[in-house]
Structure formats: C-alpha cells, structure tokens
Amino acid sequence: MKLIECPRDAMQGWTDFIPTETKTAYLNQLLRVGFDTLDFGSFVSPKAIPQLRDTAEVLAGLDLSTTKTKLLAIVANLRGAETAAGYPEIRYLGFPLSVSETFQQRNTNKSIAEALEEVARMQELCQQRGKELVVYLSMGFGNPYGDPWNPEVLGDFTRRLDALGIGIVALSDTIGASTPETIVPPFRELTAAFPRIEFGAHLHTTPQSWREKVEAAFSAGCRRFDGALGGIGGCPMAADELTGNMATENLVLYLQEQGVPTGLDMPALAEARRMSAAVFAGH
C-alpha cells in the first residue's frame, strides 16, 4: 500500500499566497509522517499557478535527512521537467496527460498528440537523470465537455505509456465525476492488462462520496492512493468548490478498518492535521 500526500494539490488554487516559511514548515512536518511520496510542489509558469512560484525555495528548506518519503514535483512541459530533474532530491516528476482533448488544451495549451510527444521526451530525460515519470490520466473518469471516455480509451492511452516504459500511471478524477461504476472496470481491466505498471487513484470527492470511491478502487486492486489532509484543494483549471481532494484522514480510516497497515507515524500525522488547519485557516 502506498499513500501519496499532495499538499501541492491542496495549495495550488489557494487565493492568498501562503508564505514560503509556512509551506516549508508544513512540508517538513508531513515528511515526518512516513508517506511513501510527498507531492510537494510544481515547476510550472508562475502566471499559471502563482501560489507555487516558490517551489525551489521551499525545496531548499526541506529536511530530508531522516525521512523515507520520496519527493514528487508536477511539471507541465519539457522545460519544467528539465528544471525539476536538476534537483537530486526529487525522485518523481509528475505530468498531467488528459484523456479529454478539451481539458488538455485548457490545462497545458497542447493537444493530446503534442502532449504525448512531450511525455516521450520527458521519459527520456527521466531515464537519463535517474528519475521516474508519473503520468496522471486526468479526466480519467469522464469529462464535462462531451469528449470520448470509456475504459477502452484509458486502455489506449496506457498502451502508449507502457510502450515508453512508464511505470506509474494514476487515474485522476479531476472534477469528482467518478462513481463506483466508473472506477471499478478501469482498475480491474488495466491492472490485469498491464501488470508492469503501478496504477494509482487520484480521486476528488465530496464529503459524502469519499468512502464509496475508495472502496471501489481498493476492491478493484488499486494499492496507490493520493490524498490531501483535510480534503483541501483540487484542480484550479476545473474548479468546483464542493469537490476537493480525497481527505488523507479518510484514506487512513478506511485502511485501518480493512486491517491494512499504513506504516504512518500517527502522532506526527495528528500534528500535521493541526498544522494543515492553521495553514488553510479562514478559507
């Protein structure tokens, strides 16, 4: 079981700028919890995501001396990937590849065909630099634009990624559109068809829908889950104020109920939850 904590996703759409020292202190606390991976920041245009313009400064302040947690940074293009790959502390580069043509244009100003070409170049870069590329299939459970979606579409995208040697693919519920009926078939079919790939679930939920979504993905074989403490955040390019990230505390609760060890330091997690409430207070 791998839990990926995503403070980057929680912060990126936040209107008020969170001071660099506040971000750094919060992330250092999250590093003490024992998550598999920390999605800590992004190397994208500060005009697109002004909240994360200080990612390099935050990274410089992180204490990685005693943590087993690996760092992941989101990139939107090859230039961002080259920047991120220059930091030895960063293990994973994450790229959002939409299965919706409309959203790919909105999110990265590229067509799907152009994005796939860039993914190939990013994968070469990662292999050269000793990094791993994580591809998020955004709008992975449907989209509001009428673009084609079904498990076969996800399979087509995954075949292309598998051919490039990409080892981690996260199905991403960008707008909270998923239901158990749309979650179970893709995970069951993809995990059987592509045993070399580790499939993750990046689910956005309402407070009422989290359990059925986690249960569906878990029952279908998913063992990699993204979350954010407090369920804060989501995609600013496809915002719905009622739909946030999967709350990490709910993921932990579900796994405890299933008797699945999380390996987390629970007192450190409790302190991180307290800090999260302070970081995002008043919003």
TrEMBL record:
Keywords: Lyase, Metal-binding. GO terms for molecular function: hydroxymethylglutaryl-CoA lyase activity; metal ion binding. GO terms for biological process: ketone body biosynthetic process; L-leucine catabolic process. It comes from the Bacteria. Belongs to the HMG-CoA lyase family. The keyword rRNA-binding does not apply. InterPro entries: Aldolase_TIM, HMGL, PYR_CT. This is Hydroxymethylglutaryl-CoA lyase.
